[in-house]
Write a structure and sequence with these properties.
alpha/beta; Rossmann fold; five-stranded parallel β-sheet; globular
Length: about 300
């Protein structure tokens, strides 16, 4: 087969415009399986993803050539989806030691994404955090970056037709309350629906985690993650602890400072919190309360009454 014929064969079996991966391509993926592994941290923004991905890479390095892979076509924004040719390359590329690609993608569960996840058998990790704390953490991070010009593409969370740096304080707060929650609702809602679909189909669902576990029980959390990502190997708690310590050596790079829980509750007024709550709850109120994204209204009412 000539190079042109090989290219044509691959192109003709690529995902179709709806994102569906053809049976021919699925067969090719299975036939070219290696000892490499891949995982996607489909974290929303500001829930400790950078810290955990660094720790996970350190832990996987006991058995693999572990590395960060954006897994997307270009790394010019946080709102990325997996890029099929890159995923396929990570799947087939061989070396003396198997490779482990840790992809940190703030992606929603579109059909294109979930088709890739299932075809390549990629474990997915999703973390959650109280939405009020999340939004305040994002706002503080963005304000901090104004002086250095970092992450200008994060404007998309509060975008109103002008760059974040040109918005008034009132416009920024309006976007934080009315626009940003829409993205988080879409993110959480899409993955919750996909998780339920996985259970119905009898395939591995994403692993859901809470920010509180990262702060209070990081070793337990990392052990749960590694069992989900790489069940073929055994890792000790001592190895997990060492990986976490290595990750924290560059605290500024991992941007994890164990944010104070409840600061978002104090930052927003009661009316603002209600607006945010009403937007987020459309993604699945009971599930989001259980996962700690939304406060429990009954528990809150009891607290206020006591």
């Amino acid at each position: 087969m000539s190079a042109y014929e090989a290219i044509y064969k691959i192109m003709s079996t690529m995902p179709v415009h709806t994102g569906e991966i053809t049976a021919e391509m699925r067969g090719m993926i299975t036939a070219t399986k290696t000892k490499n592994i891949q995982t996607i941290l489909a974290y929303p923004l500001k829930v400790g993803g950078t810290y955990m991905r660094v720790a996970l890479i350190h832990l996987l390095s006991f058995h693999y050539q572990a590395h960060l892979s954006r897994g997307s076509y270009v790394a010019v924004g946080p709102n990325r989806e997996p890029y099929f040719p890159l995923i396929f390359n990570q799947h087939v590329l061989t070396d003396t030691t198997p490779r482990a690609a840790v992809m940190h993608l703030h992606t929603v569960a579109t059909q294109a994404t979930t088709e890739i996840v299932e075809a390549f058998d990629i474990p997915v990790l999703i973390a959650t955090r109280n939405i009020y704390d999340t939004l305040v953490s994002w706002a503080n991070h963005q304000e901090k970056n104004l002086a250095t010009g970092g992450y200008p593409d994060w404007d998309f969370l509060t975008e109103n037709g002008k760059p974040f740096s040109e918005m008034t304080a009132e416009e920024r707060r309006h976007g934080l309350i009315h626009f940003a929650p829409l993205w988080y609702a879409r993110h959480y809602g899409s993955w919750l629906r996909y998780s339920k679909a996985c259970m119905e189909k009898g395939i591995r669902p994403p692993l859901w985690m809470r920010y509180e576990d990262l702060v209070e029980r990081p070793v337990d959390l990392l052990m749960a993650i590694i069992q989900h990502v790489d069940p073929a190997h055994t890792y000790s708690r001592e190895q997990a602890q060492a990986a976490l310590q290595l990750a924290m050596q560059d605290k500024e790079a991992v941007r994890f400072n164990k944010g104070v829980g409840g600061r978002g509750d104090a930052y927003f007024s009661a009316e603002e919190k209600q607006v945010i709550y009403d937007i987020i709850k459309t993604a699945g109120e009971p599930d989001l309360i259980e996962l700690g994204v939304l406060p429990d209204p009954d528990a809150e009412a009891e607290r206020l009454a006591s």
